[in-house]
Amino acid sequence: MVARSPLARAGARFLRNRTALAGVALLVPALLLIGTYDWWLRWGPNNIDLLARNAPPSAQHWLGTDGVGRDVLARTLQGGRTSFAVASGSVLLSVAAGFLVGALAAFGGRGADAVAMRSVDLAMTLPPVIVLLVLASITGPGLWPTVAVIALLSWPVLARMIRARLLEVRERDFVQAARGMGAGLPHLLLRHGLPNTIDILVVYVTLQFANAILLEAGLSFLGLGIPPPAASWGNMMTAAQSTVVLEQFAWQWMTPGAALLLTVLAINFVGDGLRDAFDPRTGLQ
């Protein structure tokens, strides 16, 4: 019998996880709808139908309209694009920063380790909600400021995990041999650091993606994220601050709220499945 690789065993464990597969079943259709809605949906996110302001769901507007006559379905799907764009950008930045800091701390010697870990400690001692609001108020609303703020708040946890893994990896014979042959820091990071932390990175990316979507929605709800008229699940739900909208036009805030809830749940299901799949303690098949 041919022994399967660790990646193949992780894939098999993931495919046996029903919760993770349910997350995939929710996430894939959502991504298809978000990515293709402008091909099949008549209304754009900022098209105004003055004859259908605050209209309930109908054959013309499947999920109704908002107070100025914009299609709620189109804006919800565009809000999904915005959320995924913000999450992708912030996760990419936080992964790059967290991996580099953690790897430099592990492979760079005592001085680099001390500087890197004190920076991580400082970042982790700051109250995240207050820092998030302060940074968002300084940078102002917008797509890229929101990406930067979320990324700056997210990298320290990953840096600690990467450092912990690579402190163990650097003592292995193949790393010691590479150092003895004169391998430099870039070679160690790319040839030995990255392959030995890929499981951490995959799980972190998945779970942090959901967290970034929630943070963007919260900032946009407070007026510090994506500004109108751009569609965002967070700024769409600000309509619920009005008692009239909350009680009489529930489709205007329930639709983006449901989209946010289901998307985050699906991503968390997939992330939990990946974490269990990459954890060798969940099975040795």
TrEMBL record:
Q: Which residues cross the membrane?
A: 20-40, 84-107, 201-226, 250-271
The alphabetized UniProt keywords are: Cell membrane, Membrane, Peptide transport, Protein transport, Transmembrane, Transmembrane helix, Transport
Q: Name one Pfam family in it.
A: BPD_transp_1
Which SUPFAM superfamilies does this chain map to? Answer: MetI-like
Which residue range or ranges hold the ABC transmembrane type-1 domain? 80-271
* Family annotation (Gene3D superfamilies): MetI-like (1.10.3720.10)
- Listed name of the protein: ABC transporter permease
